[in-house]
Design the sequence.
């Protein structure tokens, strides 16, 4: 594919897809039982089914975007409900982990599937609901005391039977697109294939940015340098923060970076983490997005992460030559 044949990738990316939100979380209302009772009666509910992979219902719009299905509280399934906040129209929005209702014209999707197709309000709602529902599902007992817990503060805290409180946690993780700093068609970026990823349909092999958790006592920047060194064995020349987004699987905050490295450095892969790493040209990446890239050596088709991920966001900004 020549430089003149680059595919139309739509509008230039702004914030990472799941960094967007138009939700007023109204934290000061979470202990106001009378206000919450009224907000429940007047509110709507986003049903998320964790047993089905965290799916919710959406309807498709004519322009290719999607909208969450929010049901009136009086029609919501039985179950504990957590207060998400107030939407821009002033409507209280809640979430429930329950089987999805059957509604004509709606389909069940995960946040991974649909996050990039939602507007700011719905992206913020689904991300918050998935994160909160996942936390409640995994904290029925206190990790400190082992005692049973109950939800308090409209779902934003849990308390054990001795009164000990705990709040939702977020685990910081870094993700970095390493590239060679070269502009135009000759530039290349470094992508890796995780050793634990199975092949996709038709043997498609997915490549992505390097990523890992920030360790205790470590800055995000130090984590990037360490993880790149551990996973592929190369040194970085420079490092720039690019943005962040929640990744509620089950509760990470992804801190995104662009980094520059010399591409003549030999790889030293950690086989438990990365079983293949390669430098890809902008033409290669454009073909992967278009779905027609085949590795010339192995004959295997290759793909990129889903569009709702911050990995895709970092890759697309590099592809377009946009600043970090």
Sequence:
């Amino acid at each position: 594919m020549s430089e003149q044949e680059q595919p139309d990738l739509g509008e230039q990316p702004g914030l990472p897809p799941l960094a967007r939100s138009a939700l007023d979380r109204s934290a000061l209302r979470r202990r106001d039982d009378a206000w919450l009772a009224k907000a429940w009666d007047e509110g709507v509910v986003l049903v998320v089914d964790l047993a089905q992979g965290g799916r919710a219902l959406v309807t498709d719009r004519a322009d290719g975007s999607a909208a969450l299905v929010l049901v009136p509280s009086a029609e919501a399934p039985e179950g504990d409900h957590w207060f998400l906040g107030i939407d821009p129209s002033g409507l209280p929005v809640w979430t429930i982990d329950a089987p999805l209702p059957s509604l004509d014209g709606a389909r069940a999707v995960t946040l991974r599937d649909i996050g990039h197709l939602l507007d700011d309000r719905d992206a913020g709602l689904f991300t918050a609901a998935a994160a909160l529902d996942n936390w409640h599902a995994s904290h029925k007992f206190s990790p400190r005391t082992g005692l049973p817990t109950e939800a308090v503060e409209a779902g934003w805290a849990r308390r054990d039977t001795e009164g000990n409180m705990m709040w939702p946690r977020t685990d910081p993780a870094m993700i970095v697109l390493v590239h060679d700093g070269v502009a135009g068609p000759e530039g290349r970026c470094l992508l890796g294939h995780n050793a634990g990823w199975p092949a996709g349909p038709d043997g498609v092999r997915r490549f992505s940015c390097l990523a890992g958790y920030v360790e205790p006592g470590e800055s995000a920047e130090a984590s990037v340098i360490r993880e790149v060194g551990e996973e592929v064995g190369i040194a970085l020349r420079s490092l720039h923060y690019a943005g962040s987004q929640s990744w509620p699987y089950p509760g990470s905050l992804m801190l995104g970076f662009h980094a520059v490295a010399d591409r003549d450095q030999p790889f030293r892969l950690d086989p438990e983490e990365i079983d293949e790493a390669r430098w890809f040209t902008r033409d290669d990446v454009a073909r992967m997005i278009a779905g027609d890239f085949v590795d010339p050596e192995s004959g295997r088709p290759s793909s990129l992460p889903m569009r709702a991920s911050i990995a895709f966001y970092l890759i697309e900004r590099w592809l377009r030559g946009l600043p970090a």
In short: The CA atoms of residues 167 and 309 lie 25 Å apart. The chain has two domains: 17-138, 170-320.
